[in-house]
């Protein structure tokens, strides 16, 4: 027998029958060079090894290693195979000389199927095998290739073999729907009907009008606009079918007539094949197939109801299982014990498989755009699904499968974001469990553990998903980790080491979420992260998670640590004594700070004003800081830059004075000694102390005019930016190399603003700030100030300017008086008659400062005392030295009380005199 070229052909025996064991029926099959794989309709897989010529009857043997696994797709290379199961697992086996099994470096050939763990969790839609290379396509169109790559058949831009699946980045967002592999080339079909080919091209099988190899996917231009619906690769030729026209195009090697053009020559561009169906109008093309050196077209009778342009949907094979409304309705409808048992089996399978869960609840076609920011999930559907399962009593079965099977199996380093959808889905399950009064601590800890196990790249990708998650769902992720952490903390007394480990897992993730929330501009209030009523004995073991501590707790920790350091030295007889002349307070203080040994800052501070005898029990030092900050502000222009609009201070870049170090010491000392003092620095200073980057909003606070002008540059119409004639300089300093030669345009204005801010807050004052920071750390030897957020640290140091004066009366206690005594009632009547300024004078008269801590006057519990004066009308009210005791004589009338009180608070000269 001769072919068209006249060469002798060996006679081939025809297969008369293919029989499977146990009356199984064939669903699909694929062939390699030395074996046949057959997939039955029940998901069982059979294999027949070809030893010589095919017999009359082929009887494949059941593959025992996968006999309990429901297989839905198979693919054969020359001497290796792939199989995809219903629960989303991918198995490979056979020869591995070029890494075509994808099992990693150094792995030998495998005679039995091995799970490909690197693609675990990714919902795969299709698998394909070429000569010695393999491919898998995810539901959202991500393409992975591995194996031999000597001709660029993996599309990765090089010719290096891959022993593990590699993401083909060049095909991102191309919406890949189907893939077919030849011996050394690969063809991709997108959902939009575009065809991309790459790999070996020496026979023209790539269709690019050349015989050149392509190392990256390249669009087949001749098929562009034709909306291809099917593709098939033979060893060295390619077929494409356009359903709208009913035409099949072929290109590549034609030596054996496989191009269907009655010739045996190669073709380097796609040209239509003249099919018998074009003559017989009752036939339409259903499917196309390509063998090693053959091509097949499957046709069927055209139905009367069929339109002339028939679109055959792309069907790469069965899909992995997923949860949808149809399946949910089946579960709900089943009521008898037998069918409920089937439901339980299905629930266990689906919710034990990360791939199946990640394949569910996709957001229509948006999931094809899954990126670092788009997860491709319909979160509303997720929530409704778990709510429905809860309403029908199925949620606990789900939770059991998730905690026992799914969470421990999650991939540590998935290649794409599709595998991370599970981390967005499961919080909805846990949140509904919480509404059922079920403990969520253990399952949340298991989820947190899975998140922590993720490699840095995957965790970074997950944080991007969290950042774009709708606020309602993001808050639920936060809430479950918050509530689980609370549960662990409440039972921490006598807690096991395992539970303590779980606590740190949930807190670690809560901290990640907090950082994401901060970076996203506080999408939910910071208070959502606070855990209330943490036992004091537990607080110190949780300081690495400051996000869970509210301001009150942080203040307590700071005060306790400062007291601990201070008292330790006080008991040793050490004190940090400062003697100051009130008239020269600023000069004396700066001089004294130069003389102090840094270790003395840990000692209890005791301030004495020259020629003003009096014991400092706290009030004198508060007055000291109040006075020193006022004096510092008066002389600010000598050492600091003062903005007239904001009234705030900043460093002078040209000034290298030692004052910055000394002022830093004063700030630290005030904080360490629980004194409030307004140093008139902006929030940006506290951001820098806490290693947070100042923003344009901070410049607006510090210098409203300057910051406002920068904002206008950003907001200006694009075409007007160039008219400002700005360049990359500030104060003759170039913000970037050759900045004076770079004009600010609509394209680089954001960079200009960023460089400007960096110069103002960092570059120009680096030495000055470092001096201040060093002094601050000396002045406050406790490191607990680092727990605070910038605005919190600023508030603790500066105190509150707006005061609720009724709190002073609510917290007042009486010694020798009753609240109903006439003198007390008169006192409060007179006090409330005072204007705001006079009330603050009274506060300074009583406590040494006209500002209060962030706790407000709730923390200022005064005692109003009757000292039993013989002639009360002759005495003025006076405070005891900062024990918050007001010695109030029992005046005969309210007028005398008013007169005496006004005189006392107007003319007082400081605590040292009393």
From TrEMBL:
Q: Which GO terms describe its cellular component?
A: cytoplasm
- SMART domains from the xrefs? HECTc
Entry's PROSITE patterns?
A: HECT (PS50237), RCC1_2 (PS00626), RCC1_3 (PS50012)
MF term (GO), any? ubiquitin protein ligase activity
Tell me the keywords, alphabetical order.
Answer: Repeat, Transferase, Ubl conjugation pathway
Q: Where are the RCC repeats?
A: 43-87, 88-140, 141-192, 193-244, 246-301
Q: Which InterPro entries match?
A: HECT_dom, Hect_E3_ubiquitin_ligase, RCC1-like_dom, RCC1/BLIP-II, Reg_chr_condens, Ub-ligase/GTPase-reg
Report the record's Gene Ontology biological process terms: protein ubiquitination; ubiquitin-dependent protein catabolic process
Name the residues annotated as catalytic in the UniProt entry: 882
Residue ranges of the HECT domain? 597-914
**Pfam families from the UniProt entry:** HECT, WD40_RLD
Source domain of life is Eukaryota
Q: Which PANTHER family has this protein been placed in?
A: E3 UBIQUITIN-PROTEIN LIGASE HERC4-LIKE ISOFORM X1-RELATED (PTHR45622:SF73), UBIQUITIN-PROTEIN LIGASE E3A-RELATED (PTHR45622)
What's the protein name?
Answer: E3 ubiquitin-protein ligase HERC4
């Amino acid at each position: 027998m001769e072919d068209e070229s006249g060469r002798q052909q060996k006679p081939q025996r025809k297969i008369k029958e293919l029989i499977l064991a146990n009356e199984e029926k064939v669903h699909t099959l694929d062939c390699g060079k030395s074996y046949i794989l057959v997939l039955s309709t029940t998901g069982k897989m059979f294999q027949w090894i070809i030893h010589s010529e095919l017999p009359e009857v082929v009887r494949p043997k059941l593959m025992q290693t996968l006999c309990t696994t429901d297989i839905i797709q198979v693919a054969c290379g020359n001497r290796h195979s792939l199989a995809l199961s219903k629960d989303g697992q991918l198995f490979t086996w056979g020869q591995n000389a070029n890494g075509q099994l994808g099992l990693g470096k150094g792995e030998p050939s495998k005679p039995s199927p091995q799970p490909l763990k690197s693609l675990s969790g990714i919902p795969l839609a299709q698998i394909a095998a070429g000569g010695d290379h393999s491919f898998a396509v995810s539901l959202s169109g991500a393409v992975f290739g591995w194996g031999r790559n000597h001709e660029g058949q993996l599309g990765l831009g090089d010719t290096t073999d891959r022993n593990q699946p590699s993401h083909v980045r060049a095909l991102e967002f191309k919406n890949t729907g189907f893939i077919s592999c030849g011996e050394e080339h690969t063809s991709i079909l997108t959902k939009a009907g575009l065809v991309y080919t790459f790999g070996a091209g020496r026979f023209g099988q790539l269709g690019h009008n050349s015989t050149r190899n392509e190392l990256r996917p390249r669009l087949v231009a001749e098929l562009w606009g034709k909306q291809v619906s099917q593709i098939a690769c033979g060893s060295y030729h390619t077929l494409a079918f356009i359903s709208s026209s009913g035409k099949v195009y072929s290109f590549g090697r034609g030596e054996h007539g496989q191009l269907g053009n009655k010739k045996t020559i190669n073709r380097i561009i796609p040209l239509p094949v003249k099919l018998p169906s074009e003559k017989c109008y009752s036939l339409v093309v259903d499917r196309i197939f390509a063998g090693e050196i053959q091509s097949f077209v499957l046709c069927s009778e055209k139905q009367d109801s069929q339109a002339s342009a028939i679109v055959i949907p792309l069907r790469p094979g069965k899909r992995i299982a997923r949860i949808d409304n149809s399946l949910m309705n089946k579960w709900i409808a089943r009521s008898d014990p037998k069918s409920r048992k089937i439901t339980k089996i299905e629930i266990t399978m689906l919710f034990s498989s990360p791939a199946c869960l990640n394949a569910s609840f996709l957001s229509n076609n948006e999931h094809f755009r899954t990126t670092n920011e788009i997860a491709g999930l319909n979160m509303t559907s997720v929530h409704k699904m778990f709510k429905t399962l809860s309403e029908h009593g199925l949620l606990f079965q789900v939770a059991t499968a998730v905690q026992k099977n799914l969470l421990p199996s999650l991939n540590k380093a998935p290649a794409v974001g599709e595998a991370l959808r599970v981390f967005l889905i499961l919080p909805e399950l846990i949140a509904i469990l919480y509404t059922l009064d079920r403990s969520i601590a253990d399952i949340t800890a298991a989820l947190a553990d899975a998140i922590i196990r993720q490699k840095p790249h995957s965790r970074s990708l997950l944080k991007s998903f969290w950042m774009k998650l709708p606020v309602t769902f993001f808050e639920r992720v936060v809430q479950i980790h918050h509530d689980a952490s609370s549960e662990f903390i409440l039972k921490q007394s006598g807690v096991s080491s395992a539970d303590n480990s779980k606590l740190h897992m949930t807190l670690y993730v809560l901290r990640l979420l907090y950082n994401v929330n901060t970076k996203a501009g506080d999408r939910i209030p910071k208070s959502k992260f606070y855990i209330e009523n943490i036992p004091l004995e537990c607080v110190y073991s949780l300081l690495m998670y400051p996000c869970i501590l509210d301001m009150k707790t942080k203040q307590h920790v700071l005060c306790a640590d400062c007291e601990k350091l201070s008292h330790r030295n006080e008991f040793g007889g050490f004190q940090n004594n400062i003697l100051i002349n009130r008239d020269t307070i600023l000069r004396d203080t700066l001089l004294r700070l130069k003389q102090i040994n840094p270790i003395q800052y840990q000692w209890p501070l005791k301030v004495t004003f020259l020629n003003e005898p009096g014991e400092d029990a706290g009030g004198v030092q508060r007055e000291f800081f109040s006075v020193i900050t006022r004096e510092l502000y008066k002389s600010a222009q000598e050492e600091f830059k003062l903005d007239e609009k904001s009234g705030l201070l900043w460093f002078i870049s040209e000034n290298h004075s030692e004052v910055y170090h000394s002022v830093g010491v004063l700030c630290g000392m005030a904080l360490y000694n629980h004194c409030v003092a307004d140093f008139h620095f902006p929030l940006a200073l506290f951001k820098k102390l806490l290693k947070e980057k100042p923003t344009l909003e901070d410049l607006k606070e510090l210098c409203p005019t300057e910051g406002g002008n920068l904002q206008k540059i950003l907001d200006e119409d694009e075409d007007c930016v160039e008219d400002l004639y700005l360049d990359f300089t500030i104060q003759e300093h170039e913000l970037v190399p050759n900045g004076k030669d770079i004009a600010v345009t609509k394209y680089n204005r954001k960079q200009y603003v960023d460089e400007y801010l960096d110069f103002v807050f960092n570059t120009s004052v680096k030495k000055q700030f470092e001096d201040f920071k060093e002094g601050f750390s000396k002045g406050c030897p406790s490191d607990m100030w680092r727990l605070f957020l910038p605005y919190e640290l600023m508030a603790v140091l500066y105190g509150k300017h707006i005061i609720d004066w009724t709190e002073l009366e609510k917290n007042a206690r009486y010694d020798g008086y009753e609240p109903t005594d006439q003198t007390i009632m008169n006192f409060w009547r007179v006090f409330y008659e005072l204007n705001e300024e006079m009330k603050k004078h009274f506060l300074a008269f009583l406590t040494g400062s006209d500002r209060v801590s962030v706790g407000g006057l709730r923390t200022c519990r005064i005692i109003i005392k009757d000292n039993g004066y013989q002639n009360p009308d002759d005495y003025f009210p006076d405070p005891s030295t900062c024990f918050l005791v007001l010695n109030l004589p029992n005046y005969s009338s309210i007028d005398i009380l008013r007169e005496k009180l006004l005189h006392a608070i107007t003319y007082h000269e400081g605590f040292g005199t009393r």
